[in-house]
DNA sequence: AGTCATCTATCAGAAAATCAGATGGTATCT
DNA sequence: AGATACCATCTGATTTTCTGATAGATGACT
């Protein structure tokens, strides 16, 4: 004989319920069936799993250890069945999500943890594209769902939904001229501004442009590195400043003018024509239901 | 019916051998048995694993994915059986090894990789004790095997075996007075020496003492940090210097006297009276068979 | 101490699953 | 076209597993 899943099941049920009889009741089998199955398992493994001194069987040290192993084997069977079920339910086996770094990581991590619990069998690929355009990735089928900042013109094939607005902070290095005292709007124009090198052209690209001289940098993270060196000032979302390794060298100077949180709209995008499975739909709904840390949408 | 290990085995064998017939030959069963078992598995999972268009069955995408899962389940069964076998063979379930940092990590890692392959079911705990004495850990039963540098007096209950000698290098900071030019033995005595704070007293503790003024530090790694600051000079094994994060700031000055590699003997120790299982014996033999990077023992 | 409920191991027969071998049909190669 | 190797399916035989019964043992309770 060879070790059988039924044997392992009888073993685990016995360990969990505390007696062969109870295990029989749980598994809807006769007590004798459980008893012999566990006994056979012990013969196959060549080791005693339960000590049968008293009225109830009690795990031996070996039984204790092997119980954990048995649970693993049974879990893997359940997992296999789950994978098969997700195939028949036409759940995606793989889902690619492209998220702009503007989206705060903390709720993102919570969301994906939740996703993993709901769809344990779906392989998730997360992209944080730098220079590529999120909407282009979605358009080309390289990503199933995208989260990006607003682009005025989106192709008609792309569906979208506004998630909310992320407020930006004005930040500069602590040795930068702007770091001392409150800032005038006109003053801003005289210093170099660092902006993310947005990919597609359009009016949105220019909306935040304030200074005469602008450098284009591929990521907010890199921008902070440059800001720290005193190369210029920038508009960067809160959460990126918070989590920056160089945040001690950064200054958020007070402003002498209003309406100065420069909100940026975050959009969720997908391809209208590509059919989306249950996992993609679930993720879209959850994205839409979440509120961004800033103003609600 | 529920998914059975036999079914999975038939499935995997079919996928590996390319046909039901071949799988039957491999598993020493009739072709019909394999065929029906795979068919039953497909019914249970509710999905087609093989496409049966041509002469031979060929995996569907779902089959491809589930094949990996099936292999995992079968592997876990083998693992369980292996754990049980190691119980009956009275293999230790846990082995604690205390290694002095003098022992080079590279061969150590290779050795333990090998160990993991031979004894996959043994939990290994590795200690790199700082201030505690390795022989004391072994004596107290907190470690099964120890590798330490030679202590003249070892308790009688401790068995030991000399593994080899580790040569030490004289090292100092690049701004230290000794860093310029070849070094005289008398010169050494005038500068502060940093030594590892060895735990037990004994003549071995004093053997390497050269300077008048000595600081005792708990680890060679920390010693290098201090040496880098120019606090003193030290004798440190090669591999620790190599792997130090501060090695650019260190200098190994030339010496104007001979016999200056200060070899330190490494011993393997164990408790004679405590019975050792197969894993401990294997590890002892392999330790003994290895040559230290320096002179052979 | 005696009673009772509940547990375990084991047995025999019934029920179920699995297997081998035979058969017919089909794809592939020569 | 013929030969070969393969697959699906059927049937009866074999093996395994299950149930239900029985006897002995343990622990709780009076």
TrEMBL record, chains A, B:
Residues 3-60 form the HTH lysR-type domain. It comes from the Bacteria. GO terms for molecular function: DNA-binding transcription factor activity; transcription cis-regulatory region binding. Keywords: DNA-binding, Transcription, Transcription regulation. InterPro entries: LysR_HTH_N (IPR000847), LysR_subst-bd (IPR005119), WH-like_DNA-bd_sf (IPR036388), WH_DNA-bd_sf (IPR036390). PROSITE patterns: HTH_LYSR (PS50931). Belongs to the LysR transcriptional regulatory family. This is LysR family transcriptional regulator. The lineage of its organism: Bacteria, Pseudomonadati, Pseudomonadota, Alphaproteobacteria, Rhodobacterales.
């Amino acid at each position: 004989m060879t070790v059988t899943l039924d044997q392992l099941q009888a073993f685990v049920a016995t360990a969990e319920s505390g007696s062969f009889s109870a295990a029989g009741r749980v598994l809807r089998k006769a007590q004798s069936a459980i008893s012999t199955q566990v006994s056979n398992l012990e013969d196959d493994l060549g080791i005693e799993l339960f000590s049968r001194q008293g009225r109830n069987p009690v795990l031996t040290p070996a039984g204790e250890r092997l119980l954990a192993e048995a649970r693993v084997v049974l879990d893997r069977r359940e997992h296999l069945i789950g994978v098969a079920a997700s195939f028949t339910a036409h759940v995606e086996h793989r889902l690619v999500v492209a998220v702009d770094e503007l989206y705060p990581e903390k709720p993102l991590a919570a969301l994906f943890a939740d996703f993993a619990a709901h769809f344990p069998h779906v392989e998730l690929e997360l992209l944080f594209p730098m220079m590529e355009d999120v909407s282009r990735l979605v358009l080309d089928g390289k990503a199933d769902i995208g989260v990006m900042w607003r682009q005025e013109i989106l192709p008609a094939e792309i569906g979208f939904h506004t998630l909310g607005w992320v407020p930006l902070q004005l930040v500069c290095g602590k040795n930068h001229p702007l770091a001392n005292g409150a800032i005038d709007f006109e003053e801003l124009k005289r210093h170099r501004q660092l902006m993310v090198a947005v990919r597609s052209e359009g009016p949105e690209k220019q909306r935040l442009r304030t200074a005469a001289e602008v450098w284009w940098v591929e990521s907010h993270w890199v921008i902070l590195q440059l800001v720290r060196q005193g190369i210029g000032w920038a508009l960067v979302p809160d959460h990126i400043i918070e989590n920056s390794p160089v945040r001690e060298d950064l200054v958020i100077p007070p402003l002498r003018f209003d309406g100065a949180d420069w909100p940026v709209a975050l959009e969720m995008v997908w391809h209208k024509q590509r059919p989306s499975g249950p996992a993609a739909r679930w993720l879209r709904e959850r994205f839409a239901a979440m509120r961004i840390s800033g103003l609600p949408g």
